[in-house]
Amino acid sequence: MRPLRFGIVGTGTIAHRFARAICHVPQAQLAAVASRSAETGEAFAREFEIPLWFDSYESMAQSDAIDAAYIAVPHSGHVGCTCMMLRSGKHVLCEKPMAVTAAEGERMFRLARENGVLLMEAMWARLVPGTLKMLELVRQGALGDLLGVEGKFCYTMDEDEMDHHVFRPEHGGGALLDVGVYGLHFARWYLGENVQSMSAEASIFGGVDKHTCVLLRYASGAIADLSSAILLRKPNEGYVYGSRGYAYLPRFYAPQRIVLHLSDGTQQTIETPYAGNGFEEQIAHFCACVAEGLPASPVVTPESTMYVLRQMDAIRRQFGVRYPQDALSEG
Ligand SMILES: NC(=O)c1ccc[n+]([C@@H]2O[C@H](COP(=O)([O-])OP(=O)(O)OC[C@H]3O[C@@H](n4cnc5c(N)ncnc54)[C@H](OP(=O)(O)O)[C@@H]3O)[C@@H](O)[C@H]2O)c1
To answer: Which tens digits make up the pLDDT trace of 13-35?
Structure first.
């Protein structure tokens, strides 16, 4: 079967990581890149030996040279770029969070259904070997009944980066949307959706949340304790707690190592390395879904993306961060 021909939208940090990964996935081919600038597009294309580059996202959407688009622009651009590609009949793998608001997300999935193409949030972390292994261990009862999860994804930007989109409300910036999204997906993987109460606190900087802590209590009694930050470093790690012990997960949402501490006093370390930089699994999964003609990914489901988008809307309401996109959704 012919490889799925991808075009990348945007040429920033994550577009580079995607381009480095895709050459290791035989089912995929990097066919084109689109930038707002011809110069940047050409430089990116030369770096990765991509045959085609475009000086606008619109022109790549119109091209027959791609079957699928990978959206790698700031959060505020996800809805516009995705909808443009879906209308042109392209399958779309869109960076996280797939949208700034749940209302945007609903529009995007509706358009994908109407156009009979696949739309998936690039929640690569759900597909890496460490997450698959941890979920298997939990299913097998290695930790007993689950009592809670904990995860911290906190980093700090440099002072000269203050004009970055992560600090801009109009781009859907802030810690929750940028990295807190991983914690919410992580909590959902292990504890499900039956949340009975949620409380959130955030420190606000320039209209976005710079440090955010969220507590979720589930009907089972389990509790998720999640934090995210863009101007504060914490150890990037997490735990899954159960009645028979706990698992320590460095880089909790996409671990390459699982350390089990069991109640009988034993400890076991399981290595779960990525195939490459961690993106290969999601690219291969996306290609398999398209090849099988699936309307949606059965793993990174539209329901999971929508569930977390709604949670993020509700969490932001608690601490009062509003984006221009909220007014559009309400209007
Ligand atoms: N999966 C992950 O691990 C991961 C990690 C980091 C980021 N991300 C996500 O990937 C997306 C992009 O993040 P990034 O870190 O790659 O950002 P970035 O380095 O700033 O790159 C974003 C790219 O988007 C394009 N763009 C379009 N409109 C823009 C605007 N108004 N301002 C700035 N750039 C604009 C630019 O490409 P052109 O100038 O060529 O058009 C730019 O190079 C975000 O959704 C982010 O959350 C995911």
So the answer is: 999 999 999 999 999 999 999 99
Can you tell me which atom of ligand 1 is nearest the CA of 78? 45
**Hey, whose CA ends up nearest to atom 26 of ligand 1?**
73
Helix (H) or strand (E) holding 63: none
Which of ligand 1's atoms lies nearest the C-alpha of 57? Answer: 41
**Residue 311 confidence class, pLDDT cut points 50, 70, 90:** very high
Please report, for the chain, the start and end positions of each structural domain, with discontinuous segments joined by +: 4-124, 129-273
Ligand 1 pocket residue status of 300, Cβ below 6 Å: no
Q: Is the pLDDT at 331 greater than 70, yes or no?
A: no
| Contacts of 49 by beta carbon, 8 Å cutoff, 6+ apart | none
Residues 6+ apart with CB under 8 A from 37: 55
Handedness of CA 299, 287, 112, 182 (dihedral sign): positive
CATH top class, domain 129-273:
alpha beta
Q: Whose CA is nearest to atom 8 of ligand 1?
A: 14
pLDDT band at 159 (very low <50, low <70, confident <90, very high): confident
CATH topology for 4-124 is: Rossmann fold (3.40.50)
Test site for ligand 1: of 9, 13, 98, most ligand atoms within 8 A of the Cβ: 13
| Cα 134 to ligand 1 centroid, rounded to whole Å | 30
203-260 pLDDT, tens digit per residue, is 999 999 999 999 999 999 999 999 999 999 999 999 999 999 999 999 999 999 999 9
